Structures are given as C-alpha cells and as structure tokens.
Amino acid sequence: ELHIGAASVEADGRIVALYGGPDxxxxxxxxxxxxxxxxxxAFAPFVYAAGLQEGVLKERGESRKTITPATVYDGDDKAALxxxxxxxxxxxxxxxxxxxxxxxxxxxxxxxxxxxNSVNTPIMQLGMDVGLDRVRRTATTAGLLPSxxxxxxxxxxxxxxxxxxxxxxxxxxxxxxHGMHTEPYSVTHLTRNGDAVPLDVPSGKRVx
Length: 208
Hints:
Layout: E1 6-9, E2 15-19, H1 44-54, E3 72-74, E4 82-83, E5 86-87, E6 108-110, H2 111-116, H3 120-130, H4 132-142, H5 165-176, E7 180-181, E8 190-192, E9 195-197, E10 205-206
Antiparallel strand pairs: 1-2, 3-6, 4-5, 7-10, 8-9
Helix pairs in contact: 1-3, 1-4, 3-4, 4-5
C-alpha cells in the first residue's frame, strides 16, 4: 500500500523529473501531483522566510520588529505558545504547548539553529509572532497552492499543509532562485511539420 510521488523542479520552473507511481493501468492517478500528504518539517523554511521578510509583532499597536537568524527563541519542550495578549488557548480551554521530537528541550536557541536542528517550539512561536496569515501568504507566493492549506491554527507552522511533490519542489526552487518564483512547467518547446510553435513559457517574478 506504499505510494511514492517525487518531482524535481529547476530554479527556472522547469519540471525535469517526475515519478507518480506505476503505469496508468495499475494506478489511475499521479502521486507526484497528489495533495494528500502533510509537508511536515519541510514546511519550516517558509515560516523562517516569513519571519525574516515580514518581521514579528510582539505587542498590539507596536511596529513590527526585525528578526535575524541569530534571534533567540525558547527551545524547550512543552513551551506555551504566546500571542500579544498572552498564552494561546485552544477551544477546549487549554493552553497550547509546542512539542519537540523525543521531548527534547534545547533551552534558548537561535532561529538558525532551530531550523537546522528541526526544533518545533521556536518555529511554532515564530509563526505566531509573524502571523499565520503572513506565513501562509509567504508559502503561497513561493509556490504552494492555497488549496493545500487547512485550518489556520498554530500547527500550520509544523507543516499541516498538503502540497503535491511538484508544488513543494517548485516552492523550494524559489529558494534556489534567490527569491524568484517561476510557475512549474513541463513543455519547453513544440514543433509542427518541423516548424517551432510559439509557447507562453512562464517567467520568474520576485516573491522573497
């Protein structure tokens, strides 16, 4: 029952490799273009990018503050998520606490190291500080489709979005292109009776 979907997208948007599963007779859909698997940790760079680009809001009414890779966050397991008004409460009346893999506490940690070591608590709090709407917007402009997102809750920063392999590769290609995004495409040229047929090939635009 294992399904595998894979894609490779160049920085200029060209889809250069795909694997969507066995042939059509055995499987009538393409796993490379399926949006049913959460992005998980692979989503963290979009939260990081949103923070670096948008800054964070610590108190209502304040101007947004610039952060850097060296900005320090609480990396402890079960750290309570904070909003400008105080702790974030779920619908059940409980304070929402971020959890790290294996329950490990890292203490104060820079955002750079939090990303490198995949520490959940700083990334989730960063998402709260930036604003989940801005995190979502950053990921969308980088290449993910709006339809791949579910509820706008703190877990969004941990990768609850379900982009296809093609779209995830396309969004990462935006990082490779230094913030320029080109919509993914697979046809580079056409000919008819030996003559070239004009194609409207996507062009890149600055998004980060």
